[in-house]
Amino acid sequence: MATRDTHQEHLGHVVFITAAAAIGGFLFGYDSSVINGAVVGIQRHFAVGPVEIGIVVAIALLGSAVGAWTGGRLADRWGRTRTMQVAAALFAISSIGQMLPFTVYDLALWRVLAGVAIGMASVLGPAYIAEVAPPAYRGRLGSFQQLAIVLGIAVSQLVNYVIARLAGGDVNNPLWGLEAWQWMLGACVVPALLYWLFAANIPESPRYLVMAGRDQQARKVLAEVEGAGVDLDVRLREIHQVLRTEEKPTLRDLRGSALGLLPIVWVGIILSVFQQFVGINVIFYYSSVLWQSVGITQANSLLISFSSSVINIIGTFIAIALVDRIGRKPLLLIGSAGMAVSLATAAWAFSAAETVNGSPQLPSPQGPIALMAANAFVLFFALSWGVVVWVLLGEMFPNRIRAAALGVAASAQWIANWAITVTFPVLSEWNLPLTYAMYAGFAVLSFLFVTRWVRETKGRRLEEMG
After folding, report:
1. If you ran DSSP here, which 8-state letter would residue 283 be given?
2. Residues 288/305, Cβ–Cβ less than 8 Å
3. Which is more confident, 98 or 158?
4. Where does the pLDDT of residue 49 fall: very low under 50, low under 70, confident under 90, or very high at 90 and above?
5. At what angle do helices 215-226 and 232-244 cross, to 10 degrees?
6. Left if phi > 0, otherwise alpha if psi is -120 to 50, otherwise beta: which for 431?
7. From CA 152, how far away is CA 198, in angstroms rounded?
């Protein structure tokens, strides 16, 4: 009984540590999607057109690419937890700046700073969680990052709704001395401060401590996170052996014969790109506009958008339950197949849109089918690529280059995210069914890529990766 209680206490401690690190993922999701509720208010307040507002929305993604690129290198130099504190400070400062902008231009600059923090969090969470989680639980604990992201998205929608209701339903109405949309953007300072507080109180990664020559601290942390039954001397020797056989990580260490980079780095980059090129953020950034473009009312389109967030959370829980049972690669293949079918179905349904009395409409049965297909797409993404890519990026790279390689892969993800975000309005206006058919094509390609190039990492120690 005592051994079981000790095991549960140990596991609870590890869950607490990883959940604290995943608050960065919550901020990632929250700050990425909170702008949706404020877009109309910003446009009216500064009297700007669609081009300027599009830049304000998308520019954070470029900042995220910069943050992801530099976050891994800073984590190797300063440590995982100290770099988390820097990201938390950037979140808080950028939130206050976005809340109190003088012009749309300085608002855009604050959005870039917020993007840098988001990009850093996208790297730090998976790397830290992979390095402190016991191998038997690493997949499920690594899934905390994606769960935190989808919860952040849903909470931002809820907070925006509450603030809008408090302001009488109009985001430009005054509320406590400011306009409602300003409070929406400023509310992120609360979870940012919590992130800083937790990052200051969780243990440093044992692998970073060994890298920094602090073996006694590393031994203590390993005992905390891997339990009393682990031979700490053996674990320390394993980590030392890996560190001795590899040089200090720099971007040069990622170079290889395969088009300038190591093959494993290319696998991480392509996984990141496919995660975005299937068009998932079209659902979360543009779903309201999308459904209105085929004749669904504004109120109903907002309800559909919220329901998609709920389905996203459900799918994430399914992934957490399965990732350590059936493995990473099978989940990716299931997700790719499901996304390909659901996206192709949505493309077929949207092709039936017709204009009735000057307004677009989807006839029956294509209307309900399009809705079911879009939600099926979200579900298949959430239970596979949404979670598994982050788990893989945290564990697939050799120990010495992990943070740097993860930074490069995450940067590619943000650039791909930006590309999808800025092109969808033009592509959908040109041909919405063909746009969704293109996303379905990327889902098919992702299936073929995983089949050929992705190796299973389930149950393997990080020191075995390479």
Report:
1. H
2. yes
3. 98
4. confident
5. 120
6. beta
7. 17
Among 86, 186, 205, 158, residue whose Cα is nearest residue 462: 205
Greater model confidence, 239 or 444: 444
Residue 261's closest CA among 456, 270, 66? 270
Q: Locate 460 and state its tokens.
A: 């393997």
For residue 43, what are its two tokens? 């446009």
* 323-356 confidence digits (pLDDT tens): 888 888 999 999 999 999 999 999 998 888 776 6
CB-CB contact of 46 with 103 (8 Å): yes
CA–CA separation, 374 vs 340, rounded Å?
Answer: 11
In the block, residue with structure tokens 């990141």: 272
pLDDT tens digits, 161-181 = 788 778 887 778 888 889 888
Interacting residues of 270 by C-beta distance below 8 A, sequence separation 6+:
449, 453
Q: Where are the beta strands (DSSP E) in 28-176?
A: 174-175
Residue range 353-380: mean pLDDT, rounded: 78
> Could you count the other beta carbons within 10 Å of the beta carbon of residue 48?
18
Q: How many CA atoms lie within 13 A of 86 on its CB side?
A: 18
Neighbours of 235 (CB within 10 A): 19
Q: Provide CB contacts within 8 A for 72, sequence distance 6+.
A: 123, 127, 402, 403, 404, 405, 406, 407, 408, 410
Both structure tokens of 58: 């998308």
Closest CA to 60 of 21, 24, 90: 90
- Decide: 34 and 171 in contact? Cβ < 8 Å: no
| 309: nearest Cα among 154, 159, 155, 144 | 154
Rounded CA gap, 260 and 256, in Å? 5
Residue 61 in contact with residue 416, Cβ under 8 Å?
no
SS3 219: helix
Q: What is the 3-state secondary structure (H, E, C) of 138-196?
A: HHHHHCHHHHHHHHHHHHHHHHHHHHHHHCCCCCCCEECCEEHHHHHHHCCHHHHHHHH
CB atoms closer than 10 angstroms to residue 247:
10
Bridge partners (DSSP) listed for residue 360: 355
What gap in Å lies between CA 404 and CA 127, rounded to an integer?
10
Q: What is the DSSP letter of 401?
A: G
The pTM score is 0.70
pLDDT in tens, 417-461: 888 877 777 787 788 889 999 999 999 999 999 998 888 777 666
Say which residues have a Cβ less than 8 Å from residue 5's Cβ, sequence separation at least 6.
none
Distances (CA, A) of 330 to 322, 327, 335, 388, 464: 10, 6, 9, 10, 21
Gap between the Cα atoms of 360 and 350, Å rounded: 11
Q: Is the pLDDT confidence value at 143 over 90?
A: no
Q: Please name the residues in contact with 453: beta carbons below 8 A apart, sequence gap of 6 or more.
A: 267, 270
